[in-house]
Amino acid sequence: MSKAAMLLSWAALSxxxxxxxxxxxxxxxxxxxxxxxxxxxxxxxxxxxxxLNRISIVRNDAFSYLPELTRLYLDRNRIDTIExxxxxxxxxxxxxxxxxxxxxxxxxxxxxxxxxTVWINSNRLKFIRAEQVEGLTALEALFIGGNVIxxxxxxxxxxxxxxxxxxxxxIQCCNKVISLKSLNNTSLKIKPSPCTYPEELVDVDWQSIxxxxxxxxxxxxxxxxxxxxxxxxxxxxxxxxxVNKELTKLQATLLYKARLLxxxxxxxxxxxxxxxxxxxxxxxxxxxxxxxxPCVLHTTCAVExxxxx
Length: 309
Fold this sequence. Notes:
This is LRRCT domain-containing protein. The chain has helices at 3-12, 130-133, 221-230, 249-263; strands at residues 17-18, 25-28, 47-49, 57-58, 71-73, 81-82, 94-96, 117-119, 141-143, 163-165, 171-172, 188-189, 195-197, 267-273, 276-281, 300-303. It is α/β, with parallel strands linked by helices. It folds into two domains: 3-169, Ribonuclease Inhibitor (Leucine-rich repeat, LRR (right-handed beta-alpha superhelix)), CATH 3.80.10; 221-303, no CATH class. The strands form four sheets. Strands 1-2-3-5-7-8-9-10-12 form a nine-stranded mixed beta sheet, with no helix packed on it. The longest helix has 15 residues, at 249-263. The two termini are 40 Å apart.
């Protein structure tokens, strides 16, 4: 951290206080001009407010020196990257990341047993996959409104979840999200007519839609089954990989190999788009295994060539 940033951070830390009502050690660093997560917050802090700053990346172990941290607010920053172990060492129960620039649902595995509430409204999310949230055993409330999400997960895998906020979102009302109909009006915040698929449900009031109406397969599901057939009998089933174009046998093989690399923690993400297999490198150099050019950290590369590994 630069000297100026350190001075600014120390000045902002004068806002640290013990709230009279709850006696909870709290740090407020809102609108402090921070460009990264400060490393000098008192380590007994339980609530941290870092809203309205200029933070763009939350790095691994950014909060690991705050073992009592239970609430974290990062709203209205410029965050486009949250590394896989950013929240390691904490006992977060609530995290708010609203109005940022996140394209990926963050890895919250390190707080999977404590986290009860996530606000990730108004980011740039395009999809949420089961594998990104299925370990969040304590999650009770998830707020994702204001994102343009074209592929949602089956929420029934989150056994503790009883509140979903999806205001301002269009939804593909298909069999994958049929579990939404199990939630009452209090538990589900959604616009009156959210369906963009199938055609017969467009402009239909949500309260009039039944589970039977949502029995159609989701768009892209057929393509996923094609990939599964290519790999009939393989151990890797890569659930909820979004495929929106039929893959050739070679492309399906590439997808399978890429998923194996992900399981070996050599790459962080893999998906298919328009018949291309895309990977996001976890290291600074992908060694050209999946692309004609090496991937750069936090970028995506199309899989254009194949080599045995």
